[in-house]
């Protein structure tokens, strides 16, 4: 499955548009991770725990996007956009794009 932020895929023609699809992931914040992230913020540096959670949420959202595209017969998703939100101490990552069949 080709997943790209561009509107087309070089070397391919879009044969069929299947419509806009989305994949989401919501991860709860861990108390210990919050504590260590707070310490990191005070003394400086990067928060590895939050970076790992963010990466996990992004991969989950993109995997869900691919699964939904495959379920409707698409073999690619173009114009992918990733959005990040914090809702009630939970991290939400949303991936959306247009499911297409490349010819």
Question: How would you describe what is shown here?
Answer:
With 103 residues, the chain is α+β, with helices and mostly antiparallel strands. The chain has helices at 31-43, 48-71, and strands spanning 2-3, 14-28, 76-87, 90-102. Strands 1-3-4-2 form a 4-stranded mixed β-sheet. The radius of gyration is 17 Å and the shape is elongated. The chain starts with a strand and ends with a strand. The mean pLDDT is 85.
> What would you call the structural class?
alpha+beta
Number of extended strands: 4
Give the count of helical stretches: 2
Q: How would you sum up the global shape?
A: elongated
Topology order in helix (H) and strand (E) letters: EEHHEE
| Rounded radius of gyration (Å) | 17 Å
Strand order of the largest sheet: 1-3-4-2
